[in-house]
TrEMBL record:
EC number from the UniProt entry: 2.3.1.9
GO BP, sorted A to Z: small molecule metabolic process
Protein name per UniProt: Acetyl-CoA C-acyltransferase
One Pfam short name: Thiolase_C
Residue ranges of domain Thiolase C-terminal in the record: 37-158
Family: Belongs to the thiolase-like superfamily. Thiolase family.
Keywords, ordered alphabetically: Acyltransferase, Transferase
Species classification: Bacteria, Pseudomonadati, Pseudomonadota, Gammaproteobacteria, Enterobacterales
Enzyme type, top EC level: transferase
Molecular function GO labels: acetyl-CoA C-acetyltransferase activity
Organism: Escherichia coli
């Protein structure tokens, strides 16, 4: 239920949906042994916690830490998939990170596609990988806010 005087409405918040997603992770050697393509490699991961009252901004800090771990700048990243719990949350993260919105959620985010709570992270990663393949992009970033003040980020890379 939304506060009738609030700024978060059904029109700018992600709807909670049913959904499922799956990822097969394995070593490159195992993929080759099974004659499976290697779509991307995980390069770095970060998880950060902030005051739960500030729940939506933790992806900013997780993204910065993840990029630092891999040695990339945000400008090095070709595509970004970011969870958008609410429009205000997504816009705040984008403003704080100063990312190029033309590279973020290029096929729509959770407000457009829905937010299958337990599968959102996997859905975001799968969307990112497939869009990178489609565009022949090399570097990608997935980032999410999670209830309780948590944020996570993951960088992936495809071969040239």
């Amino acid at each position: 239920s939304f506060d009738s005087l609030g700024s978060v409405t059904a029109g700018n918040a992600s709807s909670i949906n049913d959904g499922a997603a799956a990822v097969m992770m394995m070593s490159e050697a195992k993929a080759r042994a099974l004659n499976l393509p290697v779509l991307a490699r995980i390069r770095a991961f970060a998880s950060v916690g902030v005051d739960p009252a500030l729940m939506g901004i933790a992806p900013v800090y997780a993204t910065r830490r993840c990029l630092e771990r891999v040695g990339w700048q945000l400008a090095d990243v070709d595509l970004i998939e970011a969870n958008e719990a609410f429009a205000a949350q997504a816009l705040s993260v984008g403003k704080m990170l100063e990312w190029d919105e033309r590279r973020v959620n290029v096929n729509g985010g959770a407000i457009a596609l829905g937010h299958p709570i337990g599968a959102s992270g996997c859905r975001i990663l799968v969307s990112l990988v497939h869009e990178m393949v489609k565009r022949n992009a090399r570097k990608g970033l997935a980032t999410l806010c999670i209830g309780g003040g948590q944020g996570v980020a993951l960088t992936i890379e495809r071969d040239e």
